[in-house]
Structure formats: structure tokens, C-alpha cells
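I'd like us to work through together how a protein chain folds, taking it slowly. We need material for that, and I hope you will provide a protein of your own picking. Go ahead whenever you are ready, and we will take it from there:
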Amino acid sequence: MAALGWLTPRRRSATARSVLAGEAAAEAARKSSQELEELEAARAAEPESPDEAAGPSEPEFPVPGDTKAAAFFDLDNTVMQGAAIFHFGRGLYKRKFFERQELVRFAWQQAWFRLAGVEDPEHMQDARESALSIVKGHKVSELMTIGEEIYDEYMAERIWPGTRALAQAHLDAGQKVWLVTAAPVETATIIARRLGLTGALGTVAESHDGIYTGRLVGEPLHGPAKAEAVRALAAAEGLDLTRCAAYSDSHNDIPMLSLVGHPYAINPDAKLRRHARERDWRLRDYRTGRKAAKVGIPAAAGVGALAGGTAAALALHRRRR
């Protein structure tokens, strides 16, 4: 596919489109965070329930009261099992935004993503282009309302408790916590709000008078564009990146992880695991089973789930052909 040249995550520096995408994501995140802060203030006035998903304690980090520090979390397979944009596609299909053929493609891509445990640039671009064409002409407010429903239907039960506990540790230390994802910023903002995080940096789709045009601002927030978004937000927020933390499962996010003083590899793919070990970065793997940890397959429910997922993927592939 000829259009993949600018998207494929290779070793490259940030382009003008990456910078534009990063700055647009940072601006959108700052605008949405004000509402999230108001909601958090309201929650603070209520009694807190005990956190049942407490993760491993790290007494030296995060540092309580260090407001020059913040945490940046990748979303897909780091905070949530699978890819948000595919779950979003399922929800839109249920609401008859597109035909069954599109659903089959979304399902095949999601099955591949879960089995391989890594991002495929062609699948991700295909999903984004499909989503853009589907939402073109729709109101932003309409998609936000639907996004809330889709989160409850498909995403809430796929949040990794261990990663959520890490995010909560930063919040408890008085630091801001941001999602950084190639998913649409509206979807990412909904997830951030539901998890009680500060806000989200995501891919910004162009809109005029509250209506989607079917185009992006810059490029998808992927690879170097994520690093540019974090850099822009840190400058606007007055953060010291050497005191910040970043969390991701993918080697595509090495530019973002390399920006901060505290990089974490979460459920890492093989390339990121190797890179992290070479640089003595911290690793966390919340997938079950030694084989899953070794080859990067999210074994959600053991061998039976893996076999079922393989069969489903093959069936979808045959149907697609």
C-alpha cells in the first residue's frame, strides 16, 4: 500500500506532520483535562473505596508531591487488552454505522493483534482510514456519547489491573497521568475520564462546526508523533521530563520512552523487551503464563482461549478470502 510509507514505524526522526500531530494532541489534551480535573475534585470530596488492584510497591518512585513529574501511558495492550479503535469499530457496527464486511475486517485485525501481541502498521492504518470514512459527516458530540456506551460494552473489562494500579500510584503521589495513544482523542479522553486519569493525547480528527470532515490533523499519533506530543505537553505544563515516567508495550514507542527519566516496558513485545534489558529499564508483564510472557501473546484464559482465538482468526481469514 503506497500510503504506508509515512506511517510505517521505522527508525526515523520526527517529521513536520509528526510535530503537527503532536502539538494538536497536546492542545486537545489540555482542553479536555479541565473537565477531568473538575470531576476528580468532586470525587475527592467523596469517601474513597479500597483499591483491590494494588500493584507492586516501589517506595523510591513515584515521589510524592513532585508536581514537576507526570506519567504517560500508552493505551493498546499497555492499559487495555487489544486495540481501542477495533473495539470502537465493533460498537459502531452494532449501531449500524457500516456493513458486515467492514466488521469482518475489524475482527480479523483485532484477532491478529491479540495473537501476535504487536502492532501491524497496515492493519492500524486500515482501521484508522475506515474509522475516518465512517465518522465523516457525523457530529463530534454524537460520537462522544456513543463512545461512552462502547467503553461500557467492550473496553471496561479489558483494563489491566496491574497497569491501572501503576497509574493510581502516580495520582496518589499528586502527579498528573496522561494516556498517549494513536486512538482517536475523543475515545482516549473517555477512557482517561473513566479511569480517573488527568487526560489523553490521541489522534486528532479534523472537524468544522462540530462535524467531522474525514481528515486528520497532521498524522496518527504513532511512534515519533507520540514523543512530540509528550514534549509539547511537558513544555506547556512546565514538567521536567527527566522526572517523568512513561509506560508502553511496543517498540514503536521507544522514542516516547526515551524522552523520560523513568521508562517502563509493560507487557513488552520482543523488540521492546530486548531494548529495555539492554538499557536496564523496568519491566512489568501482567499477562498470564510463561509462554505468553516469552513470545508476547496475551494469554487471557490459557491454551483454550488461544486455540479459540486462532480458530476464529483463521475462519475470518477464509471468509475474507
In short: The chain is about 50% helix and 15% strand.
